[in-house]
Fold this sequence. Notes:
Number of helices: 16
Strand content: 5-15%
Structural class: alpha/beta
Radius of gyration: 22 Å
Order of helices and strands: HHHHHHEEEHEHEHEHEHEHEHHEHHEE
Amino acid sequence: MGSENKELYWIALSMVPGIGCKTAHQLLEVFEEPENLFIETRKGLETVFGKRTNIIDAILSKSMFVEAEKEIKYASINNVKILTYNSPEYPQRLKRAECSDNPIVLYYRGTANLNSQKIISIVGTRKATDYGRRGGEELIADVKNENVMIVSGLAYGVDTLAHRMALQNGLPTVGVLGHGLDMIYPNENVSLAREMLGNGGLLTEYMTGTKIDPHNFPSRNRIIAALSDAVVVIEAAKKGGALITAEVAGSYNRDVFAVPGKVCDQYSEGCNNLIKNNKAHLMQSAQDLFYIMGWKKNGKRESVQTSMFVELTPEQKIIYDLLLQNRELTLDEISLKCELSLPKIASILLTLELKNIIKCLPGKMYKIM
């Protein structure tokens, strides 16, 4: 079967009414491939969906195939990549266990590698002050030579600043949209978006023709959070989309950084609260980001002191090196990558944790300190 036919079934699955991202993943565990769902009999579908006849009827009618075919045609004409969940170009960070609500299909137009080694998301208020603009400009200028990709949401304010400064400093930048790739919102960023296609790109889970819906933007924020290694909040009021992104990033085990401001500043209140409530690292400069993330200027992760290697056994060194290369791994992922038993791995991880070499995160995820 051709790739376009396979894409047809993936897109059709994403369009079935009543089936969200989590349910789609659960169905893939049962049917393995989307096309298997659409060739199933009514009786077979009833064993899965019970009395939810609206879903069963939609699947059997294949009514969404017409729109799916239109989407494939649009993608072919407009150089849009359809990234299905099993595609090697699909962002691997979105596949981590904690991101269980990731889309099964993404639409991407651009040149940047969505699996770049270092990715940071920069978010903030749509009404950036001079203080916020300076903070964003200094941060991006400081990471200019660090091979970092910048992700944001192409909205007014901090988002626009992040994209523009990334381009000015020669860094790839990707905008995550809350609508299809057939339009740009806000309209003032059309030329910016066009420039980003040359060194970055535009990414969305929404099909063409999707209307501007305020509910789509908080939803797209989860992709901004999941796509990155760290989320930086430049300026944020007490409430807003930037704080939603920060909260989601925390639930995804991503590091969150916030630029502090005066206690009386309206657009620093959100950042100050994140820091006060231990939901974000205080960031005064890019060096704070490099230190916490363990990044150094040659593009590799900062390691623990060389003298510490003397204290590691060969088996401990195997697991340490795995975490050094992959940044974060679950217990199961470590088990798959090394030839050691689970009890042995658990014992080694505990020892490394007690030595303050690694850190255990929620969801049995481990990372280098």
